[in-house]
Amino acid sequence: MKRKSFAIIGAGRFGSSIAVTLSEMGHDVLVLDLDEKRIQDLADKVTHAMQADATNEHNIKALGVANFDAVIVAIGVEMQASILTCLMMKELGAKYILAKARTAQHGKVLERIGVDRVVFPERDMGVRLARQLTDKHVLDCIDLSPEYSVEELVAPDFLTGKSLQDLDLRSRYGINLIAIKSGDNVNISPLAGDMIQKNDLLVVVGKNKDLERLLR
């Protein structure tokens, strides 16, 4: 895995979680936040942690944002500070910007100023938990877009004992099966003749409405 560099602006729960995870994966991570305690808590967990105001253009310029592989703007409460920071990042030539949004309106503004990816952590987590709570088969869910997701699920009884050719999931449900896990064996390129067994874990991708239809 290639070592990459990340600048994370905002060390709340979202920002600090990303920062620590990226650091544990072996990447270079710089964290910037106004809160001294947050910076102290992260000081020995990331490459660099600095107490500074990210809305100050001088501070942002000093970071050399164009040198980072990605900048993550994780400012959660102050919408104006989030937008201003993203705008300055764009003007200073950041290669890739991911930003957290609190509301749909906030997200639209971020997209219009050129943020590469806008995420809604609270909303997305709520959707994932709702799916897991309402359907016993769903183990995990990753949103690819507002309409498409990847889900990991326990094979429903009506799929077991049948081959992929017999099931024809793409034609019947509009979804694609991309992996099957049977015990310790993982099949990442399932063929038409492969059978689905009881308790198999399936990884499927498709439109949310089609994934829901599969499990009704």
Verbal overview:
The chain is α/β, with parallel strands linked by helices and 216 residues long. The chain has 2 domains: 5-119, NAD(P)-binding Rossmann-like Domain (Rossmann fold), CATH 3.40.50.720; 124-214, Regulator of K+ conductance, C-terminal domain (Alpha-Beta Plaits, 2-Layer Sandwich), CATH 3.30.70.1450. It is 36% helix and 28% strand. The chain has 9 helices and 13 strands. It has helices at 13-24, 36-42, 57-63, 79-91, 104-112, 121-134, 164-167, 169-173, 208-214; strands at residues 5-9, 28-33, 48-51, 70-73, 97-100, 117-119, 138-143, 148-154, 162-163, 176-182, 185-187, 195-196, 201-207. The strands form 3 sheets. A 6-stranded parallel β-sheet has the order 3-2-1-4-5-6, sandwiched between helices. The chain has a 5-stranded antiparallel β-sheet with strand order 7-8-13-10-11. Strands 9-12 form a two-stranded antiparallel ribbon. Strand 1 (5-9), helix 1 (13-24) and strand 2 form a beta-alpha-beta unit. The mean pLDDT is 84.
